[in-house]
Amino acid sequence: MSAASPSSASPAETGGVAAVDGLPGIEAHPHARSVLASALGPGGKPSHAYLFHGPAGTGKRAIARAFAASLLVEGARNPETVGERVARDSHPDLTWVTPSGAAEMLVGDVEEPVVAAAARTPFESARRVFVLESVETMNEQAANRMLKTLEEPPSFAHLVLLSDRREDVLATIVSRCQQVRFDPLPSERIADGLMEGEEDVESVLAHACGRLALGDARLAARFLGAEGQALRARAEAYVRSTLAGSTGERPWIALLGAAKAAGESAGESGQERMEAELELVPSKERKRYEREALEARRRGERRVRTQTLDLALRLAELWLRDMLCVCEGAPELIYALDRRSELELDADGRDGARLRAGIELVGDTRLSLSLNPSEELALEALAYRLQALLAR
Hints:
Blueprint: H1 11-20, H2 30-37, E1 49-53, H3 60-73, H4 82-87, E2 94-97, H5 107-116, E3 128-132, H6 140-151, E4 157-163, H7 171-174, E5 178-181, H8 187-197, H9 203-212, H10 217-224, H11 226-244, H12 252-278, H13 286-327, H14 340-347, H15 352-369, H16 375-390
Parallel strand pairs: 1-4, 1-5, 2-3, 3-4
């Protein structure tokens, strides 16, 4: 029998393809498009659990939100308003969970919001949808609480788990989900998007941001902004000071200041949300709510501070990597295209083996940040080690 032509596709298949093509950015992810098409449209059969995995900034969250809206349209009294309400996080049958721990998803993040709520019937749709971000950070206790829900959820419950690092998700979680792969976005596509979204953006800067982001469109946009450019400059100054043997100027202080400012900004945003929500909390529960919110703010500030330091060290790592490309006679492979002359100056006469060792040192320090060391001591120690290895 010959393969069916597009014109002979069933109405359900046609409807599913049409529906999945409405998900924002899905055309860049053929595997995700293929998997999700069978879940949408008339006669669609969505799985009870999905694991959306792939690098940050590939559009997983935006597609997860649109996918949730598509699922919630079924049985809705006012289907035309579902998308808008999902976008505003105001749909009662959608639960969106983000980790509250400084470095992990806690059992409290899933106990009541997901495990208990999944057993309750939908408020107004035919389904309930639960989206959990950063499931690679889920601790063992939280994972154990999730297992039964993932194995035998009610027929109306659908879970969408998001992860930037599938390899770090517990195997017991992965095995119970249908996997949906999101591939890194090409740097050229990211650069084109940056130039379309902003006026007077230099092509070389946009392409540098696209390459440095390693497929993460959101990160590329951050690098293009004032805060991102300042972080790049501080990270580059940090690593270049070690090359010049000038660590006595303590370049890590600027990185710590940037991380602290980012954490405080995140904390202030959380405080504003808490104050808005507090008005809806019964008076007898306000003290408990304020105490829990304060603790959540502290964890959030630490999480953003650590993420900012990790990003700064990643930029330092990529600077050494670009220097290595120049040393090895492959300057066309550098990421920081807008800093080519500086990279060529720094790379002149360098030893490739020492640069590789320096890259490993930075990578080891990035890993150590997750173990809650003294951040200042970690950055200071790295600076002196790089200086001993690389300074002339």
